[in-house]
Amino acid sequence: ESPAIQLRGHFVGHYLSACASMSLATGDEELRERGTWMVQELEKCQNKIGTGFLAAYDEDMIDNVEKRIPVWAPYYTIHKILAGLVDQYLLQGNYKALSIAC
User: Fold this and answer.
1) Where does residue 9 fall: left (phi above 0), alpha (psi -120 to 50 degrees), or beta otherwise?
2) Model pTM?
3) Is 33 strand, coil or helix?
4) Could you tell me if 12 and 81 are in contact, meaning their C-beta atoms sit under 8 angstroms apart?
5) pLDDT tens profile 42-92
6) Distance between CA atoms of residues 81 and 3, nearest Å
7) Distance of CA 72 to CAs 54, 62, 83, 84, Å?
8) Which of 23, 50, 96, 98 is least surrounded by CB atoms within 10 angstroms?
C-alpha cells in the first residue's frame, strides 16, 4: 500500500481476523502461525512509534479529522486493526495481541 493512499493498513486487520477464524475452524497451524507472526510485527511497529499508537499512518491523520480537514477513514482503519488483534486474542488466545490493542 502506497504511503500516498489514505486508506491503508485496514487489510492487516482483515488478515488477522481471517487467520484467527480459519485456523480455529480448520485447525490449520500455518494460518495460526501467520497470525502470530503478524501480531509480533505489529508489536515492533507500535514499539518503534513509542506512544502506544498503532496505525499505518501518522497520528497527524487523526488530528486532521479533528480539524475537519478531509481524510479518508482513519478511524475505520484503526478499527479494523484493533478488531483483528481482538480476534487473535479471543479466537487464538494470543495475549500479546490483546496487549497491543489495549
Assistant:
1) left
2) 0.89
3) helix
4) yes
5) 999 999 999 988 888 888 888 888 899 888 888 888 999 999 999 999 999
6) 17
7) 17, 10, 19, 20
8) 50
